[in-house]
Write a structure and sequence with these properties.
This protein is 56% helix and 0% strand. It is mainly α and 116 residues long.
Amino acid sequence: MGLPPAWGQSAPALAPPPPLPPPASPCVSRYGETGCGARLYAQLLCGSVGRPLTVPTLQQQLQAQFEQAGLRFVGVTAEQVEGAAVRYYAPQLCPAQAGSLRELFYPSGSAAQNTP
């Protein structure tokens, strides 16, 4: 009794596995994607309070920081990052400016201000 015909043939070549993602930056390793992005955003916001910076300038700086940290934001929304930056990290990083940042993003009486 011999081998089935397919067994006697060489196996088809398999496609190479996809490349592994680059290792996570220390920021992402410590805070996760959302936390790292929010922390970087909060640092930028804290440093910009009272300074005449344009939105495009801030966006460019933030984009450069996100790229440097290797953030991909898979399954993360801008609102999640912004909310964590303003509500959680800004009070830690710049308590003196945290109230004005919160008021800027969530004016008094807005429903978003009262959500955790």
